[in-house]
From TrEMBL:
Residues 284-311 are annotated as: Disordered. Keywords: ATP-binding, Nucleotide-binding, Transport. Residues 302-311 have a biased composition (Basic and acidic residues). The lineage of its organism: Bacteria, Pseudomonadati, Pseudomonadota, Gammaproteobacteria, Alteromonadales. This is ABC transporter-related protein. Gene3D superfamilies: P-loop containing nucleotide triphosphate hydrolases (3.40.50.300).
Length: 311
């Protein structure tokens, strides 16, 4: 009898272990308020090892606030954040930096550093105060610069790089950090379309778990394994792009008129937006919203008719 129980317990432990192993990040009941206002309410989700999760939602939905909680810039009022089964609030700063790399839009100025020196900062969590730079370190930095297409800018002053090049340099620094989880706040913001795609593909290729906020829903649909849709600090939907990005949900949460169809290449939803509806103060009013939707549709219909007449 006790043997049965022990083997049952072991099975349960093995099962839990494999669940924890497969789950890179688990967030439960996260809550945060500021200025007497709830900014994040009861957010729960998980991220599987090696997957990319896109955080989407309108301006002010709480995307950056959620990421700030994850990388410990903000201490939430409630909830737990676990990385591979360990509560991140128990990590020392150095241990946390070994496990989690962060790429933000607004970074401190690095006037005096070359691109290569900036990227080498990623080595810091793995070094003691008296450790010298090794040839392996230099190789790591060179490989990361090559991965983001900045080898030719290695010796240039970082501050003199373009917005997109700076962004790629920061991703190279994160690669050098060799984290288990990479957190990015709108990494494609400064990038032209070629580099938007290239950076997102690069993030997928690195093979680590990635969580990134992203405004471009079509890019999120194409590149993310999972999406978490936030609205007014709440989780509205979580799942595959196909399950999250429905026409009804997009128009309700973002207040736009749109249609979706499977992308010819990857099959996830591709969103077409319609134009021509007004933007009043009553954007949250359901009737006004519906009127806007039908105005958008009729505008589109007339434009389409006009086009067809011309043809
Ligand atoms: N420290 C703070 N104190 C007070 N309010 C805050 C603070 N940080 C964020 N907020 C508020 O929380 C809300 C969510 O902000 P957050 O930056 O997380 O949204 P977001 O989804 O990232 O928006 P965006 O898409 O515009 O970048 C906003 O209304 C913002 O004003």
């Amino acid at each position: 009898m006790s043997g049965d129980k022990n083997s049952g317990d072991k099975e349960h432990r093995d099962e839990m272990h494999s669940v924890n192993k497969a789950c890179a990040l688990a967030v439960s009941d996260l809550r945060w308020h500021a200025d007497d206002r709830a900014i994040l309410s009861d957010i729960s989700f998980s991220l599987a090892k090696g997957e990319m999760l896109g955080i989407i939602g309108p301006n002010g939905a709480g995307k950056s606030s959620l990421l700030r909680c994850l990388y410990r810039y903000i201490k939430p009022d409630n909830g737990t954040i676990s990385l591979f089964g360990q509560n991140t609030s128990h990590f020392s700063a150095k241990e946390f930096a070994r496990q989690v790399a962060v790429v933000l839009q607004d970074t401190p100025h690095h006037f005096e550093l070359t691109t290569e020196q900036l990227v080498a900062i990623g080595l810091t969590p793995h070094k003691g105060p008296f450790d010298l730079t090794t040839s392996a370190d230099r190789r790591l930095v060179a490989d990361a610069l090559e991965k983001v297409g900045l080898t030719h800018k290695a010796g240039q002053v970082y501050e003199h790089l373009s917005g997109g090049e700076k962004q790629r340099a920061l991703i190279a620094r994160a690669i050098v950090q060799q984290p288990k989880l990479l957190i990015l706040d709108e990494p494609t913001n400064h990038l032209d379309i070629r580099y938007q795609i290239q950076v997102m593909e690069l993030l997928r290729e690195i093979g680590i778990s990635v969580i990134t906020s992203i405004h471009d829903l079509n890019l999120a649909s194409a590149m993310c394994d999972q999406l978490l849709l936030l609205d007014d600090g709440r989780s509205v939907a979580h799942g595959t792009p196909k399950s999250v990005l429905t026409e009804a949900r997009i128009s309700e949460v973002f207040g736009v008129c749109c249609s979706t169809q499977p992308h010819p290449q990857h099959g996830n939803p591709q969103i077409s937006y319609f134009y021509g509806y007004s933007h009043g103060d009553n954007a949250n009013d359901k009737n006004a919203h519906d009127e806007n939707m039908s105005a958008g549709m009729s505008h589109w219909n007339s434009t389409e008719r006009h086009k067809q007449d011309e043809d």
